[in-house]
TrEMBL record:
Family: Belongs to the enoyl-CoA hydratase/isomerase family.
Role this protein plays: May play a role in fatty acid biosynthesis and insulin sensitivity.
InterPro entries associated with the record: ClpP/crotonase-like_dom_sf, Enoyl-CoA_hydra/iso, Enoyl-CoA_hydra_C, Mitochondrial_ECH-domain
Pfam families: ECH_1
GO term, biological process aspect, one: fatty acid metabolic process
Keywords carried by this UniProt record: Fatty acid metabolism, Lipid metabolism, Lyase, Transit peptide
Keyword Transit peptide (UniProt): yes
Name the UniProt record assigns to this protein: Enoyl-CoA hydratase domain-containing protein 3, mitochondrial
The UniProt record lists the keyword Transit peptide: yes
Gene Ontology molecular function: hydro-lyase activity
SUPFAM superfamilies for this protein: ClpP/crotonase
Amino acid sequence: MSETVANDQVEKPMLGTLLHGGVYRIVMQRPERMNALSSEMMSALSGELSRAAEDPAVRVILIGSEGKVFCAGHDLKELTAARAESDGGKATYERIMRQCSDLMQQIVRLPKPVIAVVTGVATAAGCQLVASCDLAIATDTATFCTPGVNIGLFCSTPMVALSRNVAPKQAMEMLLTGESIDASTAKEFGLINRIVPADYLDQVVQKYAEVIASKSARTLKIGKEAFYRQLEMPLSDAYDFAAQTMVDNMLARDAEEGISAFLQKRKPEWTDS
């Protein structure tokens, strides 16, 4: 995988990609369209995520963007155009909403950590994208909102990811008012992990991601899957599941190596097995 480069003779690609140090950057490159999640953009993102999931060189995935808007959510022009269809757009709306839901679940189920790198505004399904990622780092000027209520379209699907990241009353505040919150408030709410000055964003994000990338890929896969599965379980079931996960993890080659390395005061040599 290598960086995508545009030229003057062809339209700029929707996504730019770069792999460095086990960290795979996916950058949405439609600033003139506010990096909206059109059907085309979602297909492109899904395809890159699938390729990254299968590439053993990729250990951590970043999703970022170009321009002042991280992601403006669904492409409202695309949705509006569908009203001219014979069914008033119903089939198109069903397809696009299912596509978006599948993309968000793909991120959650991906066997590798996914980090949102937020510069600018993340609104509606763009906020949903941030919430769906495992971690999120934002600049100090980033803002977040679920403003569907302002245009008569409640952010119901963004609500699913949002309500799994922030407390119910805070989620409802965002959903009912449609007002923006700044990066500091988003961190307080639990929507993002860290706030970084824009000038240092790339440097900090790469270092942050490389720390995670240095771990055993098998261990990260086990842990991410277990984290999301146990969230949906009653307490007793969650402990039973987590205990069995620990047993299976202990039998893995990397657990044996990691514990031995710790006891011997040396750096572990992961085999991802």
